[in-house]
Specification:
The chain is of the alpha+beta class and 373 residues long. It is built from 9 helices and 20 strands. Its EC number is 7.6.2.11.
Length: 373
């Protein structure tokens, strides 16, 4: 555990009654001053992790450490943690100032100190001058900023955010992503953000934990997660992917779609059955008969910044292509891609095994330092 670790989960399981565990033997560390995102589908365990950190529930097994001290039984009001809920949980009968001041009044902080802290918190979230505004008169984005001001006014070491952008429209949601990220940088404290929105996680995070069925599938930077998915679930859940059955022929050589291709992976067994991932934006359309493979165009949609083209290769594999070039339905086209665009996934590989395999070819002459797209 490093000196920067603020939260550590050690083999934590959470179950209700005799049901299957909502969280299953999970271990991870959170460092101070970073923006973390817990990402996954509904029911994967991400909100359970948030509630365990907040102290709303206790683990069934394992230990949770805060600054090196076990906090399993420490009540929520004794933790240096504040939560921003999905519905913001503001008091409609109190104005902006009183909503932000509420926790301080409960703690019996002096009137002058409350005035100072609330003013500073509202300035931080760009709501200076809104002190007397009624909550019912505020927009969705403004209400969210009030909720964040109420969280930071208590000077917590961690702010937990439980899908706080989900109720906003797309334009406001995008604006608030920038605002939240900038706010975290200015405050310099740890944010732990829960979402099921992959683009949101990729845009905002220093580090992402991808969860499914109560377990962490993979953790890493957004680039790590996107470029080096550990398994089919992560590859499919994070962005759009072409996932095709393949066979590793030798180091740096993989076979799929009836042909062999150069890649940048090694450390697998000869003739081992694997899956490969190629992102749609890494496929380039060429003329028929050219490129590394041929596909027949099944459909084409215009998405504004690119065409979304679906095609089928001779082996029956479906391919999704994002390109600025259009292709007519029924046409035969070629697809080209670099060896670095091919990411090989081993069936049933753990994150630790994957990391070791990645290290074995990172920095090598052929690997060129990994899958930098």
């Amino acid at each position: 555990m490093s000196d920067q670790t603020i939260i550590r989960f050690e083999h934590v399981t959470k179950r209700y009654d005799q049901d299957a565990p909502v969280l299953d033997n999970v271990s991870f560390e959170i460092e101070r001053g970073k923006f973390y995102t817990l990402l996954g589908p509904s029911g994967c365990g991400k909100t359970t992790i948030l509630r365990l950190i907040a102290g709303f529930i206790e683990p069934s097994q394992g230990n949770i450490y805060f600054n090196g001290r076990i906090i399993n039984n420490v009540p929520a009001n004794k933790r240096q943690v504040n939560t921003v809920f999905q519905d913001y949980a503001l008091f409609p009968h109190l104005n902006v100032f009183e909503n932000v001041a509420f926790g301080l009044r409960v703690k019996k902080v002096s009137k002058s100190e409350i005035q100072k802290k609330v003013t500073e918190a509202l300035r931080f979230v760009n709501l200076a001058g809104y002190e007397n505004r009624e909550i019912t008169e505020m927009s969705g984005g403004q209400r969210q900023r009030v909720a964040i001001a109420r969280a930071i006014v208590n000077e917590p070491e961690i702010i937990l955010l439980d899908e706080p952008l989900s109720a906003l429209d797309l334009k406001l949601r995008t604006e608030m992503q920038y605002e939240l990220r900038e706010l975290q940088r200015r405050l310099g404290i740890t944010f732990i953000f829960v979402t099921h929105d992959q683009e949101e996680a990729l845009a905002m995070s220093d580090e992402i934990f991808v969860l499914n069925q109560g377990r962490i599938q993979q953790s890493g930077t957004p680039i790590d997660i996107y470029d080096e998915p550990i398994n089919r679930f992560v590859a499919d859940f994070i962005g759009e992917s072409n996932i095709v059955p393949a066979r590793m022929k030798a180091d740096y050589v993989v076979e799929f779609a009836g042909r062999t291709f150069e890649c940048v992976d090694k450390g697998l067994q000869p003739n081992e059955a694997v899956e490969i991932v190629i992102r749609p934006e890494d496929l380039e359309i060429t003329a028929s008969g050219k490129g590394k493979m041929q596909v027949r165009v099944d459909s084409q949609l215009f998405r504004g910044v690119h065409y979304e083209i679906k095609g089928i290769d001779d082996a029956g594999n479906a391919w999704l292509v994002h390109s600025t070039k259009r292709a007519d339905v029924g046409a035969q086209i070629g697809l080209d891609f670099d060896p670095e665009a091919i990411h090989v996934m081993r069936f049933g590989e753990t994150e630790e095994e994957f990391d070791k395999r990645l290290e074995s070819y990172e920095g090598s002459e052929t690997g060129g330092g990994g899958h930098g797209h």
